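Example protein was shown:

_____
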Amino acid sequence: MSVAEFVRAASLSDMQPGTLHEVDVNGVPVCLARTADGEVYAFRNNCSHRDFPLNTGTLEDSQIECSWHGARFDVTTGRALRLPAIKPIRTYDVKVDGDDVMVLVD
């Protein structure tokens, strides 16, 4: 059994506030969200409603809306906020080290 560790996923300088970024972290599809206040959050890049890529959605404050059916999630907790989604999305720990955005995918 391996120990999970933070992996570099992106450069902070490439992520403007209010944007979404699709990355691959050790084979896991991850969406990074940089909110308007500059915080970075990471979650599995799949809507829990229909397994659609969330990076194609829109980010407003700390909420992401899936572009397919309009499901909405809190990027800070993964909690589903609007139907048709009822299940949360999987979130991952993030740390910023200088310009490196590091994600912990277990």
User: Anything to note?
Assistant: The mean pLDDT is 94. Strands lie at 6-11, 19-25, 28-34, 40-44, 58-60, 63-65, 72-74, 80-82, 91-97, 100-104. The radius of gyration is 13 Å.
